[in-house]
Amino acid sequence: MADHLPEHVIVQILERLPTKSLIRFTSVSKRWRFIILSDPHFAKSQFQIGSHHQTLRHRLLISSASESRFKSLDLDAPSQSPLGDICSVRCPLAQQPGSPPIRILCSCNGLILATLEDQENNMYIWNPSTQFFKNLPDPADLPSKPQCLVYYGFGYLSATDDYKIIANLEVILGGEVEGKEMHIFSSKANIWKRTESPLDSDIQYEGTLSNEALHWLDNLGILAFDLAKEEFRRLPLPILDGDFRGLRAFGDCLCAFDFENLDLWVMKEYGVADSWTKLFKLKVSNQPEKIFGCWPMSVMETSTFLQKGPLCRGGELVFDLIRSVHTEEKPEMHVLSSDADFREMIEYQETLLWLG
Q: CA quadruple 28, 125, 107, 78: dihedral positive or negative?
């Protein structure tokens, strides 16, 4: 028997391991470090295998309101250990004290789209699992923050291996909306381009990725942007009782909810109105007023993670991070953390991917 396994056999073993273990194994040798952190084929293969077997870990990235500090919560931890694996995350984008805070906007395949507060032209891609980051080209004609509202989306096209970022802008002059623009970044072309924006829409929040399309709620329902065709289309909403609504991804499906009743619906067949199915109704004690309410941050098979608040507690406004466990017999709810310093929370997967 040979003393050493052939490298291709070692690679086949490694690409079936979780990302966290692989990061530890980068210290085994320079060759292993190169394969794990610098080989794009290995990173894609490990991601594809993990996606197919549903073994990629899901985490929640939590940013601080006062400074550029981040924590990461393991969403796959057993419900018996509600805090699970929560740890601090170093961000290579962190600036010197007094510099603008880092905003995390949305995620795709373990990559985070981030920007600096009030500096919308400074956009970055960051992988919290590997510490990879890349400064994106400057969209020169993107108006400055005081002049516009910007809502983003971040998605991936598998057929062309192309990541796309969408920036929907409302240009504000004198307190009124004077125009709307949309800018699209392609990782393949490494450029931004400007295109038409649906002028009848009132887009809010960041886009939700599902079926290689980005989705926003507006005043008319769901507005979907096909990343391949770069075209908008309308999708039906389920009948939601509440006035305050939101979208999330549930596996490969689109999920809709309302803040007031916390009913969660899933579109089982994409684009088909009759396929909307009610998943469950979340039970949350002492629910705050609907204008704040509870915001589902991640919807999974066994649990939903919510941000609740702000709540007045001890003379200050705080947010609760809650895990609601889906059991028919007795719904369980765990308060994971209470903090006045919560800013943004984004679900992401542990991957080795990066942008070249």
A: positive
**E strand or H helix that includes residue 337:** strand 332-339
Per-residue pLDDT, averaged over 84-105, amounts to 77
CA angle 346, 350, 353 (to 5 degrees): 105
Which runs of E-coded beta strand occur in 40-161?
58-64, 70-74, 86-89, 102-108, 111-116, 119-127, 132-135, 148-157
Report if residue 20 sits inside a domain.
yes
Check: CB of residue 90 under 8 Å from CB of residue 96: no
Cα–Cα nearest to 264, from 290, 249, 282: 282
Identify whether 255 is part of a domain. Answer: no
Any domain includes 226:
no
Residue 45 lies in a domain: yes
Residues constituting the chain:
356
- 41 contacts: CB under 8 Å, gap ≥ 6: none
Q: How many domains does the chain fold into?
A: 1
Q: Are 266 and 276 in contact (CB under 8 A)?
A: yes
Rounded CA-CA distance 281/262 in Å is 6
Query: In this predicted structure, which of 53-57, 63-67, 217-221, 229-233 has the lowest mean pLDDT?
Result: 63-67
Interhelix angle for 7-14 vs 40-52, to 10°? 50
Cα separation, 299 vs 73, in Å, equals 14
Strands (E), 187-329: 191-195, 204-210, 213-218, 221-226, 231-235, 245-250, 253-258, 263-267, 276-281, 294-299, 303-313, 316-325
For 120-129, what is each residue's pLDDT tens digit? 678 899 999 9
- Residue 332's contacts (CB-CB under 8 Å, 6 or more residues apart) are 79, 324, 325
User: Which residues span the domain enclosing 16?
Assistant: 1-56
| 3-class secondary structure, 278 | strand
